[in-house]
Amino acid sequence: MRKRLGRSSNLVSAAEPPVPSGACVFERTFPASNEMKDEVLDALLAALRPRGVMATAKDENHVRLCLDEALVNAVMHGCQYDVAKTIRVRAYAGAGKWSVLIEDPGRGFREEDLPDPDAAESLLGESGRGILLMRSLMDEVSYWRGGSAVLLSRKL
């Protein structure tokens, strides 16, 4: 029996992602490169900061870590570092909740194909724990369009 990845029970859906509630406070499309990913991450955090998303330095570190991981996955897995491909990021802030939707043109993934992050062979690996990390620090992490879109949400 496979171990669940984190506290969220959402599985990968083939459906289109829902439009999160609240006002869109950030939108950017960028070429799939780590340099652009870093610029977008900084701009995204700057857009979320005045909305009370990160009440403490610890909150900001957790949010930065989760969003960076999701963006790295889009650049690496969704676009294979191909700068001709683009990633779309939108952030929404509403009453008591904020969400970030990250979409890439990749094929997505099947959750059952992911390695168990707690398995002995995974513990020293350089990758394979990002989804677990995001699910442990966010209130909701759901995958749409076969895994090529991720929606991360957190209550204020």
Structure, explained:
The chain is α+β, with helices and mostly antiparallel strands and 156 residues long. The protein has one domain: Heat Shock Protein 90 (2-Layer Sandwich), CATH 3.30.565.10. The chain is built from 3 helices and 5 strands, in the order E-H-H-E-E-H-E-E. A 5-stranded antiparallel sheet has the order 1-2-3-5-4, with helices on one face. A hairpin with a 2-residue loop joins strand 2 (86-94) and strand 3. Helix 1 packs antiparallel against helix 2 (57-78) and helix 2 (57-78) runs antiparallel to helix 3 (130-137). The longest helix has 22 residues, at 57-78. The chain is globular, with a radius of gyration of 15 Å. Residues 1-9 have low confidence and may be disordered.
The CATH class label is Alpha Beta
Average pLDDT works out at: 88
Number of strands: 5
Strand content: 15-25%
* Straight-line N-to-C gap: 35 Å
Secondary structure: elements and pairs:
Layout: E1 23-31, H1 34-48, H2 57-78, E2 86-94, E3 97-103, H3 130-137, E4 140-144, E5 149-155
Antiparallel strand pairs: 1-2, 2-3, 3-5, 4-5
List descriptors.
156 residues; disordered N terminus; 24% strand; 29% helix; 5 strands
